[in-house]
């Protein structure tokens, strides 16, 4: 292919004139949650057989495999299962039915407790995590997981390891989803994503919306605080996590899914405990990347280095996450992994009224570091729409800045966002959009076309394209030879 034959514009052709594809008013802005009786959410295995099987990348020579066994319990009185009662085994090999190796791992049970009248306590099934090591890069493996001592092994499935990090190797297709939920729109998103045949999924926070099910999604009270005035915290209906794991298993049992937490994963319970579901259900390469927290970590997928950042843990320049991020960025060898991609749930650049300037504090702490180390792309969720930015730094067009892309349009119960902050009457008040973690740093612009104002009076020049719809993103890296 010659240069003259290439018609797909690149970021080098930008910045692009801001464009908006407005919401089609003939369409619905959202859909209802799927009921727990839906075939894709129901438990369809016997008691100790594996379900909710999920893969996660550790490296090109190692893979995490997670699953759940046993019945979760919900009610006023629940008794946790014994994690030691069922083994954590993975049989695997390079030929179907020929398992030459066995991996063993750890298991756990978590509880979500609400000792308040009318609320329901929960204790999970047994959650298993096994890390397979010593794998060959770029190789297909066949595996079963479960407990062979009680003949409770899963059906055979497969996965492929990534090739060794190199500027010549890239994943064929990476799916990007934010704010997915469990609605009819979520189903359409996942079906469409499956047809795109990705080699990995980046799940950018707000996975199940379990914390809203008893009000917006289930058959509970429409006003939670009205129905449960003596409950100081909102109940998160944990069976939705189990339904979500079953809903995702046809994909996640074959391709790795890398997750980062969103605000709907906070799920406060008694004694100030938070994020229990997220921390218990997902294996991530935190230790492998030098992180001491599953809230932020990094990994390589062939020629791309991914950095997963936590919006809802300390992000200040004096904190552990910032220190880890700086060290991780310093360690990246761009001659091996030329592409540097970051992701966090909450966007720093956003021209929708929803969550407008909500995470200015995080941006002011971390943006200069991403700019210094020339991060290429930053993916976000949180805002339920699609928006792609021109290359930007500190609200100024900058050819050396990252491209920020919001893909918080997975299909959840809260519906798609349609209002833009630059439209008449849609600019939020400075006191609106308070984050669920961290401080408030709202301010008027100090320079540029919006100088002196809190909102722009037209689509900002750093916003290249925005669209109110549900869906997902696909990231492909193509090596073009001239």
UniProtKB/TrEMBL annotation:
As recorded in UniProt, its EC number(s) are 3.1.3.2
The family database entries (PANTHER family) matched by this protein are listed as: ACID PHOSPHATASE RELATED, PURPLE ACID PHOSPHATASE
| Entry's Gene Ontology molecular function annotations | acid phosphatase activity; metal ion binding
This protein is called Purple acid phosphatase
Purple acid phosphatase N-terminal domain residues:
50-161
* EC class of the enzyme, as a word: hydrolase
What family is reported? Belongs to the metallophosphoesterase superfamily. Purple acid phosphatase family.
State where composition is biased (Basic and acidic residues): 19-32
Q: Which stretches does the entry tag as region Disordered?
A: 1-35
State the organism named in the record.
Answer: Pisum sativum
Q: Which cofactor is essential here? A: Fe cation
Q: Which reaction does it catalyse?
A: a phosphate monoester + H2O = an alcohol + phosphate
Entry keyword set: Glycoprotein, Hydrolase, Signal, Zinc
Q: Where do the Calcineurin-like phosphoesterase domain residues begin and end?
A: 173-386
């Amino acid at each position: 292919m010659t240069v003259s034959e290439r018609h797909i514009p690149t970021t080098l052709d930008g910045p692009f004139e801001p464009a908006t594809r407005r919401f089609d008013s003939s369409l619905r802005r959202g859909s209802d949650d799927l009921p727990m009786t839906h075939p894709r959410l129901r438990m369809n295995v016997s008691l100790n057989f594996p379900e909710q099987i999920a893969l996660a990348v550790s490296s090109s020579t190692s893979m995490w495999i997670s699953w759940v066994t046993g019945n979760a319990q919900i009610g006023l009185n629940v008794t946790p299962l014994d994690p030691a009662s069922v083994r954590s085994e993975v049989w695997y090999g390079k030929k179907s039915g020929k398992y030459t190796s066995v991996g063993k791992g750890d298991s756990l049970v978590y509880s979500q407790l609400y000792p308040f009248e009318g609320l329901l306590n929960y204790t999970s099934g047994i959650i298993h995590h096994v890390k397979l090591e010593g794998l060959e890069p770029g190789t297909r493996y066949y595996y079963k997981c479960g407990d062979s001592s009680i003949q409770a092994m899963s059906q055979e499935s497969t996965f492929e390891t990534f090739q060794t990090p190199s500027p010549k190797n890239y994943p064929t297709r990476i799916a990007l989803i934010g704010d997915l939920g469990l609605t009819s729109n979520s189903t359409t998103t996942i079906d469409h994503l499956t047809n795109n045949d990705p080699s990995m999924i980046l799940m950018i926070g707000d996975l199940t919306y379990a914390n809203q099910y008893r009000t917006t999604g289930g058959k509970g009270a429409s006003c939670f605080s009205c129905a449960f005035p003596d409950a100081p915290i909102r109940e998160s209906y944990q069976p939705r996590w189990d339904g979500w794991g079953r809903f995702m298993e046809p994909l996640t049992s074959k391709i790795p899914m890398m997750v980062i937490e969103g605000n709907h994963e906070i799920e406060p319970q008694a004694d100030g405990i938070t994020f229990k579901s997220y921390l218990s259900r997902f294996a991530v390469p935190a230790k492998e990347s030098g992180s001491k927290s599953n809230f932020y970590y990094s990994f390589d997928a062939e020629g791309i280095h991914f950095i997963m950042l936590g919006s809802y843990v300390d992000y200040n320049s004096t904190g552990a996450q910032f220190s880890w991020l700086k060290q991780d960025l310093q360690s990246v060898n761009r001659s091996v992994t030329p592409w540097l991609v970051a992701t966090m749930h909450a966007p720093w650049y956003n021209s929708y009224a929803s969550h407008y300037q909500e995470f200015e504090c995080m941006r002011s702490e971390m943006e200069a570091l991403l700019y210094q180390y020339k991060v290429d792309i930053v993916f976000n969720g949180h805002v339920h729409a699609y928006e792609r930015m021109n290359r930007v730094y500190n609200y100024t067009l900058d050819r050396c800045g990252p491209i920020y892309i919001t893909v918080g349009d997975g299909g959840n119960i809260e519906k798609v966002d349609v209002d833009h902050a630059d439209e008449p009457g849609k600019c939020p008040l400075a006191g609106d959009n308070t984050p669920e973690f961290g401080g408030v740093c709202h301010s008027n612009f100090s320079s540029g076309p919006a100088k002196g104002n809190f909102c722009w009076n037209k689509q900002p020049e750093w916003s290249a394209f925005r669209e109110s719809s549900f869906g997902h993103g696909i990231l492909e890296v193509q090596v073009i030879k001239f």
